[in-house]
Amino acid sequence: MKIRRAELCRSCAKPGQFPETPRPEVAFLGRSNVGKSSLLNALVQRKQLARTSSTPGKTRMIHFFEVDIDASEWMFVDLPGYGWARVSRKERDSWQSLVEGYLEGRPQLRTAVLLQDLRREISEDETLLLDWLAERGVDAMVVLTKADKLKPMRRAKRARELRAQLARPELPVLLTSSQAKH
Ligand SMILES: Nc1nc2c(ncn2[C@@H]2O[C@H](COP(=O)(O)OP(=O)(O)O)[C@@H](O)[C@H]2O)c(=O)[nH]1
Ligand SMILES: [Mg+2]
């Protein structure tokens, strides 16, 4: 599999700005700091592609990346994270309208990848998101991140515990690390 090209297409603060392209999309969702941008960079083999335009503290945006893999053309979509302890009601509402606007009104969307830190418990946020996706018929998978933070023996056990917490046997669950060493 060869990544022929990976480039930022557009960063959007409002649903009206989403690019009009026929490329099928894979969206990365999850708590802030879970490793969305790192996973995206690792998948496209570019160190700073996803980080370059997402300055922390700035307006949260959805970043669209054109990714050409072998002969196929995809769009990888880095969605803004949730779960900051102190966000205002206004910020939460704007996150919700942007992310729901994307997930609800995007026929190009093929799969939503929900990231979960292997060391954390599944929270209500993840459960609600997965229920929300299932209700709308969006295919989802769960990626457990930062596998390198646990020893291999603990890792497999922890993955089983989280899978049980998810209580959704049909969901694919993958274990990943964006770090070279693991
Ligand atoms: N050890 C380890 N750290 C990671 C991994 N993935 C991300 N990180 C670190 O976690 C922090 C947040 O990552 P980032 O990709 O920016 O998260 P995002 O907010 O979900 O986009 C950064 O300091 C990353 O270096 C991983 O697989 N292993
Ligand atoms: Mg990020």
Describe the protein in words.
There is one protein chain. With 182 residues, the chain is of the alpha/beta class. It has a single domain, classed as P-loop containing nucleotide triphosphate hydrolases (Rossmann fold). The protein has four helices and seven strands; from the N terminus they run ββαββαβαβαβ. It has a seven-stranded mixed beta sheet with strand order 1-3-4-2-5-6-7, with helices on both faces. Strand 5, helix 3 and strand 6 form a beta-alpha-beta unit. The longest helix is centred in the middle third of the chain and has 16 residues. Magnesium ion binds next to helix 1.
The CATH topology: Rossmann fold
Amount of beta strand: 25-35%
Identify the overall geometry: globular
Query: Which class of secondary structure composition applies to the elements?
Result: alpha/beta
Helix content: 25-40%
SSE string, helices as H and strands as E: EEHEEHEHEHE
Query: Uncertain runs with pLDDT below 50, 5 residues or more?
Result: none
Quickly count the helices.
4
Summarize this, please?
The chain is globular and about 45 Å long.
Write the topology of this structure.
Elements: E1 3-12, E2 25-30, H1 36-44, E3 62-69, E4 72-78, H2 89-104, E5 109-117, H3 124-135, E6 139-145, H4 152-166, E7 173-175
Parallel strand pairs: 2-4, 2-5, 5-6, 6-7
Antiparallel strand pairs: 1-3, 3-4
Task: Name the features.
182 residues; binds guanosine-5'-diphosphate; 29% helix; binds magnesium ion; 4 helices; 27% strand
